[in-house]
Amino acid sequence: MFGRKIHLFTILGFDVSIDFTWLFLAVLVTWSLARGLFPVWFGNYSTATYWWMGAAGALGLFLSIVFHEFWHSIVARRFGLPMKGITLFIFGGVAEMEEEPENAKTELLMAIAGPISSVVLGVVFLLVFRLGVAVGLPEPVNGVLVYLGWLNLVLAVFNMLPAFPLDGGRVLRSILWFAKGNIRWATRVASAIGSGFGMFLIVLGLLSFISGGFITGIWYFLIGMFIRGAALTSYRQVLVRNALSGETIAHFMQPDPVTVPPSVSIRDLVDNYFYKYHYKMFPVSQDGTLTGCITSNEVKNIPREQWNTLHVQDVLVACSTDTTISPNTDAMKALSLMNRTGRSRLMVVDGDRLVGVLTLKDMLKFLDLKIDLEEA
């Protein structure tokens, strides 16, 4: 979903990051508030005041989304679900889960935690606004507070729309899941509704654009595209999890991988391994014992004039939990490891002995075949 992210801070073990697209949203929100909303709500202030109010409103939006996603993450961790962190992007924020909830109850509690937190935060902002009016805080300060109060209430209502993957769609999926006991069917129904809602927003955006509401139309269109795409992607993820759940990587690993002796020169490595087999990573093994791995990233950083004098043992990378995996590992955990590390090949080891290599390509072939057979 995300491109390049910027890590901002860590709170209670959760990493908070922003995608680069969030910067566009921050600028757009600040501009919209400073040039549109606040001058209409509160007149007779300087341009600088409106810009400071807009910046404060954008910052408040950022903190509100983090607060919303934080409570999703808290509940997920309470039920033992591993969380990657919280990332903000152009359409809001997301608590990044590595696994789906184990049951409908967990899904329901996770889903409603965010909207409830937004309602609570909205009420707090409105109470502080009332207090600010009573004690005579400057009107621009009160203006930002009342904006943030209503903003959080609107976010709660919008997120509770029954359109997957919005929180309301997850609530709907949990109810369907509980009623029929089938997460795949529940996800298909909830995703279809979410996809339909996304299409509705796309059409609404086009109509708004044609009728002269350029900015509104663009936002409706983009949000609709996002919701529709996310709904379809979420259903595919469930298909993947169902197909791989319970499968160990021993079923589709390569049991006789190509290995590189540590004494091979870098020149021979490039000519007789990288160019011959077209892999970007090779296990380094001696007498059946795994000593590490060598990747194209290490080789490309070596000056070409040293390729004849340096050997693999001089530049190999030591084995780690990011490059090795047990043959009894669940396939979904292997796929999550590949996704987290960005690797498409993992060395399968039993103790210190190499027993195979797992590739993303082989996993996808198995996945495609299993889904095709089950769908048929």
Chart the SSEs and their pairings:
Blueprint: E1 5-11, E2 14-19, H1 20-41, H2 47-78, E3 83-89, E4 92-97, H3 104-135, H4 139-159, H5 167-180, H6 183-210, H7 214-244, H8 266-277, E5 281-286, E6 289-295, H9 296-300, H10 312-315, E7 324-325, H11 331-341, E8 345-350, E9 353-359, H12 360-375
Parallel strand pairs: 2-3, 7-8
Antiparallel strand pairs: 1-2, 3-4, 5-6, 8-9
Could you please describe the fold and organization of this structure?
This protein is α/β, with parallel strands linked by helices and 376 residues long. It has two domains: 5-244, no CATH class; 249-375, Roll (CBS-domain). Helices cover 61% and strands 14% of the residues. A four-stranded mixed beta sheet has the order 1-2-3-4. It has a three-stranded mixed beta sheet with strand order 7-8-9. Strands 5-6 form a two-stranded antiparallel ribbon. Helix 3 (104-135) runs antiparallel to helix 5. It is elongated.
How is this structure best summarized?
It contains twelve helices and nine strands. By secondary structure, it is an alpha/beta fold.
